[in-house]
Amino acid sequence: MSDTPITYAEAGVDVEAGDKAVELMKASIRTAQRPEVLGGLGGFAGLFDASAIARMAHPILATSTDGVGTKVAIAQAIDKHDTIGFDLVGMVVDDIVVCGAEPLFMTDYIATGKVVPERIAAIVSGIAAACAQANVALIGGETAEHPGLLEPDEYDVAGAATGVVERADLLTPERVQVGDVVLGLASSGLHSNGFSLVRRVVASQGWDWETEVAELGTLGPALLTPTRVYAADLLTLIRTDGIDIHALSHITGGGLAANIARVLPHGVTAVVDRSSWAPPAVFTVIGQAGRVPQLDLEGTLNMGVGFTAVLPQAQAQAAIDVLRSLDIDAWPMGRIVSDEQVDEQAAPVVRGAKGVDAGGAQLVGTYRA
């Protein structure tokens, strides 16, 4: 038994490093504000003036929480931490916009084995930059040092956000009609799902993060390409006169078919034609290197489609034009049909995704080369 006094620092927690991290991140956080934010950094709670919500006819609050998953392992391995925040914000706020809600504010949580102020500040700089892009206020957060639970260079991130929508503007499955068009909105790459599969494929090939892959360049940075944040642009689309969005789907965990199916009403199916687009090279590389079965690949990764939108056929081109003006490539990729019109012998139909008793989705054809 030692008679030496045990301090918090000797236990592995450096309070001064935490304070320095806060100082380093202040400038970034100031870029991710809205006029409704009250108070400054450091309070026990973030404050947001909700008086505008009180003036709405029938406000509905929407909330979402998520993390980045094992993609953080690549950020840690190549010591690049300023983009992972885009992955976090995209996973959280883009779920909120699916129901037509405007994300208002977000908080984050970073757990690490050892607080390195510059690393924490880099992570938060990415979160703040993504929040600013989405017009979402970053109003609070927490950095926790967990020595003994996490290694000194390990960390994980999570976040939560709140948004609001008028009840009359809520996007619900009942809006979807037979004959509607399904638009695909291009992803920026893998986004933040399926990295356990990706990392397993990389290991199976004996690659490391410095490996040069002909189609991708240096592997680590290529796989770390940040998630595209769609929220502000989709709100612009929703609010465009003459365009009536019936449904949106964020293509995240579970892949393309499962996420489309969960926003459709019972009794209809989205039939998606693979030949309408060519998945970016990263999906081909992962699929071929790991000999991943196509259905498993499609049930794990987004295959180059970050979002889908369902709307009347007559409005599809106008929506595509709006999205392309916002630098989002979009194209018609499918149609909504009644279940009676589906040829279930042609390809599997995904139903009941995420435990939701909703519609179905079927991928047919072959990807464009």
UniProtKB/TrEMBL annotation:
Keywords, in A-Z order: ATP-binding, Cytoplasm, Ligase, Nucleotide-binding, Purine biosynthesis
EC number: 6.3.3.1
Example of a GO cellular component annotation carried by this entry: cytosol
SUPFAM superfamilies per record: PurM C-terminal domain-like, PurM N-terminal domain-like
Reaction catalysed by this enzyme: 2-formamido-N(1)-(5-O-phospho-beta-D-ribosyl)acetamidine + ATP = 5-amino-1-(5-phospho-beta-D-ribosyl)imidazole + ADP + phosphate + H(+)
Tagged with keyword Ligase: yes
Transmembrane intervals: none
HAMAP family referenced in this protein's UniProt entry, alphabetically: AIRS
Protein name as catalogued: Phosphoribosylformylglycinamidine cyclo-ligase
Native species: Branchiibius hedensis
Taxonomy of the source species: Bacteria, Bacillati, Actinomycetota, Actinomycetes, Micrococcales
